Amino acid sequence: MGIIVQKFGGTSVGSVERIMNVANRVSQEVLAGNQVVVVVSAMGKTTDELVRLAGEISSNPSKREMDMLLTTGEQVTIALLSLAIKEKGYDAISYTGWQAGIQTEAIHSNARITNIETTKLKASLDEGKIVVVAGFQGATVDGEITTLGRGGSDTTAVAIAAALQADKCDIYTDVTGVFTTDPRYLNTARKLHSVSYDEMLELANLGAGVLHPRAVEFAKNYSMPLEVRSSMENERGTIIEEEVSMEKNLVVRGIAFEDQVTRVTVCGLPNGLRTLSTIFTTLASNGLNVDIIIQGTTDQDTTNISFSVKTADLNDTVRVLEENQDALKFDRIEKEDGLAKVSIVGSGMISNPGVAAEMFKVLADHDIHVKMVSTSEIKVSTVVEKGSMVKAVEALHDAFQLSVVENNEVTV
Amino acid sequence: MGIIVQKFGGTSVGSVERIMNVANRVSQEVLAGNQVVVVVSAMGKTTDELVRLAGEISSNPSKREMDMLLTTGEQVTIALLSLAIKEKGYDAISYTGWQAGIQTEAIHSNARITNIETTKLKASLDEGKIVVVAGFQGATVDGEITTLGRGGSDTTAVAIAAALQADKCDIYTDVTGVFTTDPRYLNTARKLHSVSYDEMLELANLGAGVLHPRAVEFAKNYSMPLEVRSSMENERGTIIEEEVSMEKNLVVRGIAFEDQVTRVTVCGLPNGLRTLSTIFTTLASNGLNVDIIIQGTTDQDTTNISFSVKTADLNDTVRVLEENQDALKFDRIEKEDGLAKVSIVGSGMISNPGVAAEMFKVLADHDIHVKMVSTSEIKVSTVVEKGSMVKAVEALHDAFQLSVVENNEVTV
Q1: Where is pLDDT greater, at A200 or B85?
Q2: What is the pLDDT of residues B235-262, one digit of tens each?
Q3: Are B97 and B138 in contact (CB under 8 A)?
Q4: How far apart are the first and last CA of chain B?
Q5: Looking at residue B321, what is its pLDDT?
Q6: Cβ contact, residue pair B16, A56, below 8 Å
Q7: For chain A, is the Cβ count within 10 Å smaller at the N or the C terminus?
Q8: Which fold has domain A3-244?
Q9: Which residues of B touch A85 (CB under 8 A)?
Q10: Cβ distance of A57 and B80 shorter than 8 Å
Q11: pLDDT tens digits along B65-81
Q12: Residue B182 annotated as lining a ligand binding site
C-alpha cells in the first residue's frame, strides 16, 4: 500500500458527469490498495467567468481580492468531487488550500509554496479517507488567501506528493502523454514512455502546456516521479523521473517549437561592462521576458544586442527601450517579425557534441535559414522564418529518428 | 464617528450593477464619518444553483461538503464588493467567515456562533478600511468551515455589531421596513417606525421573512439597535430596539398571519403525568415542529390533545404518531386541513388584559369561528378557516386602528 497523489485539471472536472468520472478513477486507486490525495482545479471555464465578472467592476482589480474571488472555483470542485466519491461508497473529505496546510509567501496571484503542514492530510488518510484538495491556492501564516499563479494546481499536487513522500504523482490531463513533437502538426509524432525532469522542462511547450515547468522543477528537487496521462482514456501515459534507463540511447528526445517569435536588435550600444545587465534589467523590471540573446561586437566602442521576444510583447518591448534611450545610450532599434523557434531536446546531447552540427546540417539541407542560435546542455534552439517552422520540425523529427520505437520500449 | 454594520442580502447583491449600488451605500456611511463593516450574502440565485449541482451528484449530500460548497457563494460577493468599493476610491478588504474570526460550534449546516475574535476586524477598521465580511459562515476552532443555517447572514451582521460594540446594525433588504401587517394583503398596512425586539420576534413572519428571529434574539441579548430598510429606495426603515417610546401608547402593533395550517387531534390518550411530554418529545425527535397546543380533558382516564402543524408536515406527523401508537396508547387521530393562523402582536398587551377579549369580539362580529387559541404576553393567536383569514386581518387591523398614524410619529 502506497500514497498516490492525483491531479485533475479544469477540463477533467468540467461537468458533473466528468466529476463522476474522476470519482471512478480515484476509486480505482483505492481498490488497488492505495491511500489517495486528489488535487483539482476549478471547473472548466469557472475561472474565466469570475475574471469576467471582476472585469465588469474594475479594469485593474486588486490582486488580493482576485485571489479571494478565484479560490472559490477550486472550492466548488473539491466539495462536488467529495460528494461524488462518497456517492460511490468511499469516504472522502475536502480541504481548501489553507485547510490542507499549504503555506505560501505573502504575495498575491503568484505566491510560492513555503511549507506544507501535513498533520491534517495524514490524519485524514489514516482514517481511511480519500482527501480532496483545492489546487492553485494556499494561505500565508497570517491567514491571507493566496494563489500560486499559472500551473498552480500542478505545483500543489507535486508539493503535496513531496511532503507526504508519496510513491507517485499522476497528472491527469486532456492529452495522453508527452510526445516527441506536437502530434497536431506531425502525425508521426510518438508518445514517449518516459523523459527526465530536465527534458520535460525543455519540452514544456509540447502538447499544449501539459505540465507546468514549476511543477517539474518541484518534482525534480524532490525526486518525485510524475506520470502525465489522459483523464478520458485508460492508457499508460508518460513517466517523468530522474533515470530514463529505457530510452537513454536516444540522443534527441523531442522537438519543441513555437511561432509568434520576434527578433529585436538594439544597435549602437556602448560596449561597456554593464550594457547587457542594464538593458535586460530594464526589460525585466517592466515584466518583459526575452528568450534567446545574442551579442555581436561591431567595433571597439559600440555593440549590437539581438534578442527574441514573443510577438505579443513586441510593442511594449520597443516602447520600454525607447523610453529608456537616454540611459541605455543606443542608436536605433531594428525588429523582425514572423519568426519561429525550433528546438531539439535530449539529455543525451551533453555527451554528443556533434548534435548541434547535425541539426544545422539538416536545416541547411532543407534550405532553412537559421537566424539565431542558442544552446544549453540538453537543448539546441534555432530561430527560423515562421513559414519554415513545420518543415524544420518534420525534417528534424525524421533525421533524429523520433518516430522509430526503440527495441526495449513497449508499445501501448 | 461610530461603527456601523450593514448587511445586504442576496437580492441586493444579485448583479454587478447592484453590487456597485451597494458600494455607493457603503461609501455614504464612510463620507458621514463612520467606520463600516459590510456583511453580504451570496449573489441572487448562486446558492440555489450550487444546491442544484450537488443534487445532480447526491440525493443526500454530506452536510460538511455542502458547507464547503455553499460558502463559496459569499466569498465571491465579498471579493466583488471590495473591488467595487476600491473602484470608487475607498479602501476595502474582504474576509471570509473564518478570516473574520467568526468561531462556531462544530456542527455543519446549522452552527451557532460561539465567539468572534475581532483583532483582524478592528485592525483593518483602524487602518481606514471598509471591511467586507462573508455572511452565513464561520469556522470551528479546528478550522472546519461551517454555515449558520437560515437567516445566517443576518446573524453574522448582528454578531459582528455586538462584538465590535457598533452604534448600529442596518439590515438592507427588498422591503422598506416592518409593517403593521402584510401590505400585499391589506393596502392600509402601515410601515412601523420602530418596534421592540420581542414584537419583532412575534411579527417575524410579516414582510416575507424580513429579518430572521435568530438575529433578533442576538440583537436583543446585546441591546444592539437594528434598522430594517430598503437597499433600493432611500427612505427611513423600521428601527428595532428595546425602548419604543414613540409608539408605546399603541397596544397592538401588528397583525401576523399565515395559511398552510393544519390541526391534528390525538384522541383517547391516557390522562397521565407524562402524556404531553411523551407525545411532543416523539414528534420533536423526528424533526416535527408543532405550534399551538391545546389539551382538553374528556373524562377521568383519557384526554384529547390538539395541536397545529404546518400543512407540509401533516403526513409525517400522522406517520410518526401511528408508528408510535403502542407507546403513546391513543385511540385515533383526527385532522382538519385548510386552516390559517391570525395573531395580534404588541408589547402593550401585558398591561391590557382586555385585548384578547376585544380580538375575539371583533372576530365574532365578523362571523369568524375561532378553532384554537394561544396567548403569550405580547401575542394572541387564533386558528381560523383559511377562507376567513384575510377578512380577519382586515377586521383586526381596522379595529385596533393600525392604519392611523400616531400624533407623535413622523410620516416618511
Answers
A1: B85
A2: 899 999 886 554 455 678 889 898 889 9
A3: yes
A4: 26
A5: 93
A6: yes
A7: N
A8: Carbamate kinase (3.40.1160)
A9: none
A10: yes
A11: 999 999 999 999 999 99
A12: no
